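Summary of Year 1 activities. Much of the first year was spent building the evaluation harness for sequence design. The harness presents a backbone, in tokenized form, and records the residue chosen at every position. We chose the following record to illustrate the format because it has been used consistently in internal testing since the harness was completed.
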């Protein structure tokens, strides 16, 4: 059941208020530029240096980026977003640095301020450009390094800073912490649902997300129903329930580590062999791929996206769904971090096939799908709204061509961005989450 637009409007107003809370940095410009350069050099590992050398300036990556495609503004050509990194590399690390120091200028505060928009508002770190690049240049990795440098220079967008700090320092997001999570569970228990919370032993730790508490309650209820339906040994943890990781999106390793550690500790405490993240695009790579790297050792549990888990349980015959029928015409939006980056492309289609809906594939879809424009925390950046909405026009064209009546996805951020896009463009195409759809159609 699609979310009430009034609830969504209230959430967007909360985000708008964050944008009014900025205070200018008190540090001198020189110090901020030096810090940014130091962080950029730290992030300039061999892989990134090879990428910067390998680029042949063919410009093909432009054709992959939703921000360039929708505006044709040359500032948004993917590789240009790494220009400061390249300049620094050439002046400080490259084999001809003595020459580049004579012929190129050093990075200034004006440069950083200009590139701030390019690496936040104009890049969702979706990695589509890397697919098309003949040299395999990983633009998104460079952008992530640039975001870390911006953060060090006090140039992180205020909305991301507030939310990231809240998660790192208080362990809550938008005011939802352990206590509020526990309360939400108690309210659902009062409605008759059986919900394991803080079980001392469980095979599966299931995560939630602030968006499921505040906006997508159907997804939370469906998650519980599905886990109970298959009879799994599972639990939520009031200490490690949050999938979202704003440190990952903001480029702050310390914040990222703190958020992942809460989940890691909760999983280890109950002996879980599997952790299922919520329908949250970035949560999947943040824990599954970056988690082991942050902790310097393999994770003692597997990490699954909900779609992966649902497909696995359907194939194993433990999860049984009622076919909805072909009268429901849907198209599936592959979230970049789960589909392109995580390779979870077939699993949601296995689920939709079991539900018996008329799946109208958009072109492109799967690993080549176009980003919706809201990922990597961009949905929070108020000033980026016009650019995001311009890019969203591509999505409207993409899905209108399918003849589908609604969109299904498996990422809350995508869902929010689609809802915001529908409001802005008066586009009447509802979107719902895959977990909610399954939860409403259990056999
Ligand atoms: S497609 Fe690759 S090689 Fe071509 S300009 Fe973009 S990053 Fe450089
Ligand atoms: S990662 Fe995505 S948003 Fe960023 S430059 Fe590449 S295509 Fe554009």
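For this record, the design step produced the sequence shown next.
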């Amino acid at each position: 059941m699609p979310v009430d637009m009034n609830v969504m409007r209230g959430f967007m107003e909360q985000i708008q208020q964050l944008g009014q809370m900025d205070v200018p940095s008190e540090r001198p410009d020189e110090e901020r530029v030096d810090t940014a350069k130091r962080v950029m050099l730290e992030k300039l590992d061999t892989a990134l240096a090879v990428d910067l050398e390998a680029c042949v300036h063919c410009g093909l990556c432009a054709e992959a980026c939703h921000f360039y495609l929708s505006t044709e503004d040359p500032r948004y050509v993917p590789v240009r977003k790494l220009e400061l990194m390249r300049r620094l590399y050439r002046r400080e690390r490259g084999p001809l640095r003595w020459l580049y120091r004579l012929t190129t200028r050093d990075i200034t505060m004006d440069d950083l301020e200009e590139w701030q928009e390019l690496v936040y508002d104009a890049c969702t770190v979706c990695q589509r450009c890397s697919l098309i690049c003949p040299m395999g240049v990983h633009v998104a990795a460079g952008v992530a390094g640039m975001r870390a440098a911006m953060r060090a220079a006090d140039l992180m967008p205020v909305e991301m800073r507030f939310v990231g700090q809240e998660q790192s320092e208080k362990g809550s997001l938008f005011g939802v912490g352990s206590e509020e999570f526990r309360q939400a569970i108690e309210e659902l228990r009062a409605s008759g649902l059986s919900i394991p919370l803080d079980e001392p032993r469980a095979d599966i730790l299931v995560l939630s997300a602030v968006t499921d508490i505040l906006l997508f309650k159907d997804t939370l209820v469906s998650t519980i129903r599905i886990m109970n339906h298959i009879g799994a040994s599972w639990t939520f943890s009031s200490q490690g329930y949050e999938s979202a990781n704003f440190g990952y999106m903001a480029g702050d390793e310390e914040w990222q580590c703190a958020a992942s550690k809460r989940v890691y500790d909760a999983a280890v405490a109950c002996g879980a062999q599997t952790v299922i993240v919520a329908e949250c695009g970035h949560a999947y790579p943040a824990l599954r791929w970056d988690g082991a790297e942050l902790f310097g050792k393999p994770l003692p549990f597997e990490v699954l996206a909900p779609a992966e888990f649902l497909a696995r349980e359907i194939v194993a015959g433990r999860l049984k769904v009622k076919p909805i029928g072909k009268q429901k015409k849907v198209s599936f939006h592959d979230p970049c971090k789960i589909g392109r980056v995580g390779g979870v492309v077939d699993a949601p289609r296995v689920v939709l096939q079991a539900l018996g809906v008329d799946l109208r594939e958009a072109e492109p879809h799967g690993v080549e799908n176009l980003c919706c424009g809201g990922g990597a925390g961009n949905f929070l950046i108020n000033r980026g709204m016009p650019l995001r909405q311009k890019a969203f026009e591509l999505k409207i064209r993409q899905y209108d061509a399918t003849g589908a009546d609604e969109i299904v996805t498996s990422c809350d951020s995508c869902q929010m961005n689609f809802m915001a896009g529908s409001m802005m463009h008066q586009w009447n195409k509802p979107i719902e989450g895959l977990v909610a759809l399954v939860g409403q159609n259990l056999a």
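The first helix runs from residue 5 to 19. Quantitative recovery figures across the full test set are reported in Table 2.
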